[in-house]
Model the fold of this input.
Amino acid sequence: MIDVLLASITKSCSRQLMQTTFQSSKPGETGTFSDLISRYALDLRKTVHLKTIIALGLVIHELNSRLYIDMKSVKDKKFASLCNKQLPSQMNNNIMSLNEKLVVTIPGDLVLTDAEKSVLGKGLTFVPVEKNI
Done:
C-alpha cells in the first residue's frame, strides 16, 4: 500500500515543479538550503502520515546509495584510465616505450630566454645541456 502511495506521489510531482521550487528558493533571501529543507520537511509532516515520510526517507536513502555506488565506479574507472593503470603483462611494453619518448609539460607562466624559445619553437627531439655542466 505504501508503494502504491509513493508511486502516486512520485507521478504527481513533476521534475519541472521540483526545479521551479528550488530555483525560486534563493538561499540569500530565505536562508540556507538546510533551513529550506527543514521548512519543507515541516510542511510535509503537516500533510503526510509519518509512515509515508519514513518510507520516503528509505526510498531516498536507497536511491542515494545506488547513485553513490554508480558515481564511485565511474570515477574509479576514469581515475584508472587517467593514471594509465594497465595489466601487468602490458607493463614491459610501456617501460620500453617510456625509454624511447618522454613528454614534458612546460608551465605557461615559466619565463624563458630567447634561446630557449628558439629551441622549443623547433620542437625538441633531444635535451639541450650547457657545455660547462
